[in-house]
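Notebook entry, structure prediction.
Reason for the run: the old model in the group folder had no record of what sequence produced it. Starting over properly, with the input documented here first.
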Amino acid sequence: MNISEKADRKSRRFYYIKLCIFLSGLSVFAQLYLFQPLLPMVAEHFHTTVGDSSLLVSSSTIGMALGLFFFAFRADSFSRKKLMVFSLIVSAILTIISTWIPSLPLLIIIGMVKGFVISGVSSVALAYLTEEVEISVVALAISMYLSGNTIGGMSGRIAEGFWQLFSPENSDGEMLF
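New structure, fully documented this time:
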């Protein structure tokens, strides 16, 4: 098989592209909204208001908006696949580093940088799909990316809800069950 050929519905390559693009979309929005369900705990940890702690979500969103604006003009300067891989790896590293950050302002700055970096995926994902898969299955591949975005955006909220539901103690220190 010639690697320059576009992937069709029955190819193993198309299966891997769908899987990877789904996981990419999931990662982008899971990292973007990572702190949203945790805002009350973040506020308590840093001795601030929930409103102030919400800057964690806003900063990531602002960083992503700035990154999308930047990549709108510069994306063709990079290999689409390499840009997506770089963005996912660096944003994951920034997310892991976030667990050790001792101050809210620094965490907000890291969130903005992470939003900027992760926008590298969103800025080129659809163009990447149109270049790599047959035109007859582009819509299916795009739907996998959008499904990943949706599930990623909801995953933190759902996970936190389950955590609260099945936690042995609620906020009052009393057993839920």
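Summary: Residues 43 and 50 are 5 Å apart (CA to CA).
The old model has been moved to the deprecated folder.
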